[in-house]
Amino acid sequence: MAGSNEVNLSESKRVVPLNTWILISNFKLAYNLLRRPDGTFNRHLAEFLDRKVPANANPVEGVFSFDVIIDRSTSLLSRIYRPATGEEALPSIMELEKPVTGDIVPVILFFHGGSFAHSSANSAIYDTLCRRLVGICKAVVVSVNYRRAPENPYPCAYDDGWAALKWVNSRPWLKSEEDSKVHIYMVGDSSGGNIVHNVAVKAVESGIEVLGNILLNPMFGGQERTESEKRLDGKYFVTIQDRDWYWRAFLPEGEDRDHAACNPFGPNGKSLVGMKFPKSLVVVAGLDLVQDWQLAYVEGLKKAGQEVKHLYLDKATIGFYLLPNNDHFYTVMDEISNFVSSNC
Amino acid sequence: MGPYDSAISTGSTTSSPSSAAKPSEIDGLLAGAGYKVRSTVLHQVAQRLERLETLMVNAPSEISQLASDVLHCNPSDIASWVDSMLFEFNPPVSIPSDLSDFSDLTYIDSVVSPAINQTVCNNSWLTVVTAMKEDSGIRLVHMMMTCAESVQRGDLPLAGSLIEEMQTLLTRVNTGCGIGKVARYFIDALSRRVFTPQALCATGWSNENEILYHHFYEACPYLKFAHFTANQAILEAFDGHDCVHIVDFNLMHGLQWSALIQALALRPGGPPLLRLTVIGPPSPDGRDSLREIGLRLAELARSVNVRFAFRGVAASRLEDVKPWMLQVSPKEAVAINSIMQLHRLLGSGPTRVSAIETVLGWIRSLNPKIVTVVEQEANHNQSKFLDRFTEALYYYSTMFDSLEACSLQPEKAVAEIYIQREICNVLCCEGSARVERHEPLAKWRNRLGAAGFRPLNPNHLFIHCP
To answer: Looking at residue B49, which CATH number applies to its domain?
Structure first.
């Protein structure tokens, strides 16, 4: 099969900048080493290979960060990113949680990607992305270090997301001055996007207001093999086989991909009709093999009468938002900025 | 719409880089993602990733083995990581029909086929193509050893060809740290030896040397530690004496003595009268740098109320110094201090009385209370080039490794030049030009013992670095 693989490799190289190609290919190959056929995961090696960065209470390019414990019982940590006002030389512990200033200050609850198994809040790629979001949205960003599969399958990631949402919602220092409420948006890529949806459902059911959901290349699926999956299998860094592996790792034993967590508008999905679901921005990469599921998600929201903006990026692959070296990156950052500020 | 040039670097990063490569050489966006890849090798890295993927696809059963068995070195350095992955896969050794695809893998493996080396005519190569048998770093080491061995045998054309091969290979390796950096310096030294042997080896002291020495002092802990320990020994030896005299073989910046003067000032019972006599080369530019430093030390001594006298003795060679030049008084407690100077005396010709014996002789005649000797713990004085080369490779690899811990610039970069000078002297110079004749601790112990010196206690008398 060497011949057809060579065709695939050069195809993906044509559509992304070289350094992006290297970054994502490096992930792809490293991740191949971590997934074992028996469904277990080489966590030790994964943590070793993952490039992590520490939090930094000293502002770097106008943003500083610090880590907080949200739930000791599950070791749930989050990294908080705030814009530096320029006054503090070295924030003391008190100043880290200084009340936000401004009539309306968006607080972004961020869920990193990694197909439920990879990455952490302190992974370099996500630390960089969160720092960008602070600047773009003039927001405080809270990046949740949720528990990962296969050690912690469904519903751990959702439970952690929910705990983080409650925590953020109850921080006095995150309340906007205008109405003394925390203005919450949820943003997530890949599995993080999936978590955003599921935490939003819980939020609506529990009465916590979320102002908007942003899903970047969200991870959804189903039992059926869609046209996009068959067409794009193995062509742009991702294969059906690895998608299947991650779903098996996350979903409960014995469940298939039509489980509501994987397929929210599938046969086992819950209806959102009549719910005050947050408005959504769903970004779909045209070269992502699960785009048919992402489009189905958008359709599902529309059919349930929910407000959704769908952004389809023709020649984008997974991870296009990780490096600021392509048009799609800037398009999406603009959209996110507008989405978060449009409530002002 | 289209991919932007990766030269734009906007990635903010809070990770602390450990590589010594200049920031401008590394792809800025990948750096923000936690990876170090030099911009100039992006294409090669991509090629190797593709190759690795092909191998992984074709051998899925080996993958989990790969994950658990292999040593993953420095995952930030994608180039090295993918090389080590490729090394782990042992693809079948066969010469492919399309050699152009493997043009970047040609090298000569002298271990596998020594006979071929002998029959190779002066300017042509038999290239043995093995697909991805070795990591680039390991390959470089093998090639360097082969080159050193050719130099020893006098086969300079072969050595020259190898040097050219290695210089090409260097462009595909990260020479900012690790084995790449060490290889860069050693290949440079080999190149100088083979191609420009007539170029002068810098042997004399000069103002430039002081600057290099100073940066080396700041970048590494070795000299500071050596000074500190020597000073402790000297302080102890001077205990109870009112008149003390230090003879120093190489003043450099005088930092050792400013520390000692301050320590003497705080001595219970008050400081002694301190005389410092320094032996140094005559100033090439007429500037008396010894005197300048002496004046500074005198000023310091005055400020802490230590009676102080300074003399500089100009001598090009230590063995030319006569004891009477030092004007040592019998009532004084004398300390002799030699920081990395004695090894320079080991290069005398067979017809003369050995310089080291001469010097140790007059030191002994001064009847000092203590002699503090600092030397590099290394074996760089063997007559066979290959032996010297091998020893130096290990020693300076360790030295460069430890220098990685330093983040001060320009101290670190200049310290590297200092080390490079040493390397070049060890490898490129011969006869009286080669002054960096480091010898191991055991030999110094014997030599000093034979000259009538008793080890005070191993930690005080013999301080070996690194």
So the answer is: 1.10.10.1290
The shortest CB-CB distance from B30 to any of A13, A15, A19 is to A19
Residues B254 and B176 in one domain: no
Which residues in chain A touch residue B3, judged by CB atoms under 8 angstroms apart? 15-18, 20, 325-326
Residues of A in contact with B2 (CB under 8 A): 326-327
pTM for this prediction? 0.56
| B258 lies in the same domain as B308 | yes
Contacts of B6 in chain A (CB under 8 A): 17-19, 325
User: Looking at the domain assignment, is residue B396 inside a domain?
Assistant: no
Q: Could you give the CA distance from residue B456 to residue B291 in angstroms, rounded to a whole number?
A: 32
Tell me the residue range of the domain where B53 lies. Answer: 21-89
B84 and B138 housed in the same domain = no
Q: What three-state secondary structure class fits B159?
A: helix
**In chain B, which residues touch A (CB < 8 A)?**
1-6, 8, 10-15, 27, 29-30, 32-35, 37, 42-43, 45-46, 49-50, 52-54, 56-58, 63-64, 66-68, 72, 75-76, 78, 81-82, 85
Same domain, B337 and B456: yes
Residue B54 lies in a domain: yes
Helices B78-88 and A18-34: crossing angle in degrees, nearest 10, is: 40
Query: Which residues of chain A lie closer than 8 angstroms to B81, CB-CB?
Result: 26
Residue B276 and residue B129 share a domain: no
A178 to chain B, minimum CA–CA distance in Å? 32
| Residues B42, A48: C-beta atoms closer than 8 Å | no
- Average confidence (pLDDT) per 10 residues, chain B, 466 residues: 36 41 77 92 90 82 68 82 77 39 31 30 30 63 90 89 89 81 91 79 59 86 89 92 94 90 92 93 73 90 93 86 90 94 80 81 92 91 91 91 84 88 89 87 89 71 40
Inter-chain residue contact A29 with B63, CB threshold 8 Å: no
Using one digit for the tens of pLDDT, what is the confidence trace for A53-65? 999 988 999 999 9
pLDDT of residue B211: 82
pLDDT, tens digit (0-9, with 9 covering 90-100), for A148-186? 999 999 999 999 999 999 999 999 999 999 999 999 999
Do B149 and B253 have their domain in common? no
User: In this structure, are residues A171 and A96 in contact, taking their beta carbons and an 8 Å threshold?
Assistant: no
Distance from C-alpha of B444 to C-alpha of B342, rounded to nearest angstrom: 9
